[in-house]
Amino acid sequence: MAPAGVPRAKKGILERLDDGEVVIGDGSFLITLEKRGYVKVGLWTPEAVVEHPDAVRQLHMEFLRAGSNVMQTFTFSASEDNMESKWEAVNAAACDLAREVADKGDALVAGGICQTSVYKQHKDEGRIKKLFRQQLEVFARKNVDFLIAEYFEHVEEAVWAVEVLKELGKPVAVTMCIGPEGDMHDVTPGECAVKLGKAGANIIGVNCRFGPWTSLRTIKLMKEGLGAEGLKAHLMIQSLGFHTPDCGKGGFVDLPEYPFALEPRVATRWDIQKYAREAYNLGVRYIGGCCGFEPYHIRAIAEELAPERGFLPPASEKHDSWGSGLNMHTKPWIRARARREYWENLLPASGRPFCPSLSKPDI
């Protein structure tokens, strides 16, 4: 037992997953902070950690309160090829903010890297690994708990990322931004998972580019690929918080609504409860979200999986299960909505009578 007055050490990411615990990731930073006026579109680089740290801290806090077990550093595209001389200060500040908030709860800090802007140009393995290694050096100095390589559309580059991150000796998660058709070189999801598993990734999955139901299909194919090769790895899913059944191989970035008119596609909290349950039933134990995933979506995951986790998040203090708080409403037809069956079977209207239900990707 730990001495009185001394906090117990937090369980590591692999300890939690090996014990069958549900790990809940966080959600959207880039798109959410752009809407709030702190991030500029284009390169989507995270200067906000230096320019507006209170905004980033607040969003971390909201995800923690909603049930997130992981505070991922806001370091998406924070490599030298995208940020030039700013990259080191941004990575360091992002680590400090994530650690500050994680220490307020039972959360871990994950240092995050993503695909580079130079891979498509020259595929210089040495140059690309150097970019990854620069960020890794900051993560090592800041002693993050584990590492995430995310948002890779080419498995070759994702493998290079895993190989670099393994150098630190900490657990490595890797997620690809692909759908059921596979990566941009037509490597299938199952083959991608196998390559990443053989590279040494401890946690393998998908993030971003596709909505919940497409991402679930992709992670199922990854699981099947790993199983066929006899490889073991924990599974991870962090889908979009948008419905995108009409996007092509490139995902939501090819939809004409991206990035400024996606609001009609936002998933409801009930959609996300269903997503969480289906992911859990597939054997996925690291479940979170990416672009469009607000704190209330993370709370929906935590509430859906509360029986398995054994507790509710702090944010559920203001949210009764399946709308049961509506029992207090003064209007009887609204009180009638205070039941699970109502919200599970609702088909929400968009309120846009002349809009099509689906779009055609630009490419």
TrEMBL record:
One of its GO terms (biological process) is methylation. It comes from the Eukaryota. Pathway: Amino-acid biosynthesis; L-methionine biosynthesis via de novo pathway; L-methionine from L-homocysteine (BhmT route): step 1/1. Zn(2+) binds at residues 208, 290-291. Its cofactor is Zn(2+). One of its GO terms (cellular component) is cytosol. Binds 1 zinc ion per subunit. GO terms for molecular function: betaine-homocysteine S-methyltransferase activity; S-methylmethionine-homocysteine S-methyltransferase activity; zinc ion binding. InterPro entries: BHMT, BHMT-like, HCY_dom, HCY_dom_sf. Residues 11-305 form the Hcy-binding domain. Gene3D superfamilies: Homocysteine-binding-like domain (3.20.20.330). Keywords: Metal-binding, Methyltransferase, Transferase, Zinc. The keyword 4Fe-4S does not apply. Involved in the regulation of homocysteine metabolism. Homotetramer. This is Betaine--homocysteine S-methyltransferase 2.
